[in-house]
Amino acid sequence: MNDYTGYLKKRILIPLSIIIFIVMMIFIAATFWHIFEGIDKETTLQMQVVETIYQGDLEADASLMRSSLNLIARDERIIEAFLQRDRVQLLNLSNTLYKQLNQQSQITHFYFTTPDRINLLRVHQPTRHSDRIERFTTLEAERSGKVSYGLELGILGTFTLRVVHPWYHQGELIGYVELGKEIDHILGKLHDALDVSLYVLIEKDHLDRQRWKEGMQMHGREASWNDYPEHIMVSSAKLYQSLPKQLEERLQNPGELRFREPVNVSIPEKRFKASFLPLEDVTQQQVGILLVLNPTEHWFESGWRILSFSAVLVLSVGGIVFILFYLLAENTENTLTATEQKLEDEYERRTDLQQEHILSLQESNQQLESTQNQLQQSNEMLAEAQHIAHIGSWNWSIHDNQVIWSDELYEIFGLEKSINTLSYEYVLQLIPNSERRYVDEVIQQALRSGEPFQIEHTIIHADGSTRFVRDQAQLSFDSDHRPISMLGTLQDITEQKQSEDITIQLAHIFDNASNQIYLLDIETLKILRTNKTATQHLGYSEAEFKQLTYSDFLESKDVGDLKQSFSALDNDTLKELRFEADHRSKDGTCRAMDIRVQRSRLAIKDIYLVIALDISERHQYQRDLQYQSLHDTLTRLPNRALLLEQLKNEISRSRRLNSCLLLLHLNINSFGEINDTLGHDQGDQLLAMLAERLKNTIREGDTIARTGGDEFALLFPEALFDDRQTVIDQLNHALLSPFEIGDFSLNVEITIGLVSYPEHGDSAEELLRHAGVALKQAKSFRSGYESYHPEFDQHSVRRLMLNSDMREAIDRKEFSLYFQPKMPSNPAHPINAEALIRWQHPEHGFISPAEFIPLAERNGYIQKITRWVLDEAASHLQRWNKNNCYLTISVNLSARNLQEAGLVQHIRDLSERWKISPEQLTFEVTETAMLNDPDYIATILDEISSMGHGISIDDFGTGYSSLSYLQRLPANELKIDTSFIQRMIEDEDSAIIVRSTRELAHNLGLAVTAEGVETEEMVEALTSLHCDRLQGYYFSRPLPADNFITWMEQHRVNV
């Protein structure tokens, strides 16, 4: 009997004690995990905040300095002093501004630099100048033409945020203006905001020791170069005087700070988490480290409080549980001991009684089990053998007509085994009618003769299908030699019969297949057998084939050693080998074949099965399709797709050889009229004849293609842009003789668009599109040929950008109004001026009105721009009126403006809103603008004129106005176009046009203004013709408003 005293106590209380201890350890581990996890999360968040504030302050400072530079760059006095290279005046103008920027924004650097990066003036250090600026920010501004900014490391190891502004004046780069400020104030801001200590460490590799020491002494700072091997500490914002010992040791060991993972450090009674932020200059090169110490002492204090409370709780609860389990275990031990004693006594009594019965039964069971096992093994082996061979056995008792089947026989017939009463007649019904009589006669003959039999016949399966069987049997006789039973077997041979049928069918398919089939010996690749298709196509007899190996008539560049290639099928990973090659027939002709090779098994050996499909016609069809897809059907020339492919190849070749190429895109003038007049058949004949002539003009290696309709493209590799005239002359010469089309003799002219690589694009698609743009441009200008110009490309990237930026240009104050004087030929008359809009784009610089005004007319933004110009001109007139300066300003109106429904009302409101006289505002309208709906335009101009505004016909002589139409307009002035004025001195025809226009205008009572006056000779000629006003660069270029007033004061003009 087991003694349970103390047993349960040990089994229960020892694990319980271990559990209490483990729980205590888990509380301790969880507490410390909480502390360090909290420290890590706080450190990560702290570093994100540090980096965000650091980067945000840099961006804010850079933005403020860009704004300051923008204002400085627009100051006309500073511009004038800079252009005059007057350092004293420039210093006087900018020194006060520098002091303000230094006090308000901590600006420490202020530079003026010429376009070639020679420093003209350091406002913060006037005595140092005339050196070349080689800093990255200045070089980047020079390269990009845009504002450049970034951090750069100074000789003292301090970071300076520098902003360099390219300085444009009247569309030209005149130099660079630069502001800079040191970033130490950002450390102070981070220190105050986050209550952390910060140290800036600079790598010595980026500093010159001697220059650094001299700089530190100049600024009265301690030059501690040897404190650390790889770094110097240039600035700090800290809570404690000393750096933790662990960090001091890291700084003393070279390479330690290259591992930037946060570390735990401490000083007496203080703990910190040290993190490292890489410091990069404007070139994104790391030059130092920002060391951040985040206090973590509060996390440990909180952890110890949690740990103390957890320990008391676990120990208290654990003690109570321990006592309860101790008492329960002791009571249970006593009960188990008494119960066990009773059970042992009863067990011994029953064991003796059962032992006697067991011995007696064991002997009987052993004998019975041995007999049953032998019988079961025999039955199982017989059933398994019958199942494997699909053979069932049967026994027919003749005297009582009962038939007994084996299990397998039920399977063969598909019947349920529950049918256990079978008769001879029942079994006969399972045989088809066509064979039933035959089977019955065989069995009856066996009964008469006493001989065994074997026959093959069919049976009807329970599912209705027919099965083939082999049936054999023999008789058993009694002592009088009378048959008493028939014992037989029946084998299902359906699969065997089907295999025989399939073999016959496969042999037929093999011989009559449309593909060539070969059976090859694996070792020698000799041909064992072929089909009729192979003998017919290759011309060898079957006997001749057996003398050949497969490689004897296989020709392929891709297949090397045939035996080695076929051996890849010898493992199970590759099931089929497929390739294309030629079969060479007996007469030497070759045909392309799609060949498949498999490894197969015959009765006694493995062979290679080769099936070859004749694909010669498919190849020819594919070649025809490919040719048709890349060539024009009518002219047999390459089409657009093939041209693009050849153009890509030539561009790649030109790029390698550093050469050029020319691409011409041309079409036939008035080809549509030829088609409409003579018919499309004659038009196609003309296209084919033109293609032949063009082919005769090009060199070997040049390409001509038909890109669609009446359009052709010619590609000239290794041709310079300067060769274009020679090429065009050759083409025109080829077209001098007329084309004989039926009964007609046609003279054909062409229009050409021309581009070159790499000047007009660096991709095939781009060059071809630009050639199309140039062709449209040539047709528009009717010039015969034109090369590509981006300003006429409605889909260029620059135009898309300008279209987008234009919508915000007014809000960003990028537009400004310039004024050009219109000088009276009579000094007693007052001066007038024309208001001209200018766009100073922040990235692209000065944008010509000739470029953005047509864009605005197409995208509909011209209305908003015109209203801005009207309001801006009226605003200037109001301001000048208050200063007793009364002027008449003319503003241009486009055709789109004149179609605007609210234009008249807006003009009507101008005088009242800005308190100006209507006579002070004149509107200039071109002849072309009036051609669209002239009656409506005349009505609009009548309304504007009735308010008191003047109307001027601009660019007169370039449009199509008739005298009668001119009489209908409420015009006060004609402006003769610049093209006539600038040619009048040397071109008599232009001079006649100018005189006739002046006489016509005066006869109609209109004033005459001549535009484009640039020389004194023009002034004298126009004055002698009594032109009322002269306008042009001879007097002044267009000027900003303030400069325009200054110009008038300097010239003491009459206003």
Descriptive overview:
Residues 502-545 form the PAS domain. Its EC number is 3.1.4.52. By secondary structure, the chain is of the alpha+beta class. The chain has five domains: 68-252 and 262-293, Beta-Lactamase (2-Layer Sandwich), CATH 3.30.450.20; 389-497, Beta-Lactamase, CATH 3.30.450; 512-618, PAS domain (Beta-Lactamase), CATH 3.30.450; 630-790, Alpha-Beta Plaits; 795-1049, TIM Barrel, CATH 3.20.20.450. The chain is 47% helix and 24% strand. It is built from 32 helices and 38 strands. Strands 29-30-32-33-34-35-36-37 form an eight-stranded mixed beta barrel. It has a six-stranded antiparallel β-sheet with strand order 17-16-21-20-19-18. Helix 31 links the parallel strand 36 (1007-1010) and strand 37 (1029-1030). The mean pLDDT is 84.
Provide tags for this entry.
transmembrane helix, 5 domains, 6-stranded antiparallel β-sheet, Beta-Lactamase, 38 strands, kinase activity, c-di-GMP, alpha+beta, 8-stranded mixed barrel, 1055 residues
Radius of gyration: 54 Å
CATH H level, superfamily name of the largest domain: EAL domain
Count every helix, treating DSSP H or I runs of 4 or more residues as helices: 32
What number of domains?
A: 5
- Provide the CATH top-level class of the largest domain: Alpha Beta
Measured distance between first and last alpha carbons: 135 Å
Q: How much helicity do the residues have? A: 40-55%
Summarize the structure.
Keywords: ATP-binding, c-di-GMP, Coiled coil, Kinase, Membrane, Nucleotide-binding, Phosphoprotein, Transferase, Transmembrane, Transmembrane helix, Two-component regulatory system. By secondary structure, the chain is of the alpha+beta class. It folds into 5 domains: 68-252 and 262-293, Beta-Lactamase (2-Layer Sandwich), CATH 3.30.450; 389-497, Beta-Lactamase (2-Layer Sandwich), CATH 3.30.450.20; 512-618, Beta-Lactamase; 630-790, Reverse transcriptase/Diguanylate cyclase domain (Alpha-Beta Plaits), CATH 3.30.70; 795-1049, EAL domain (TIM Barrel), CATH 3.20.20.450.
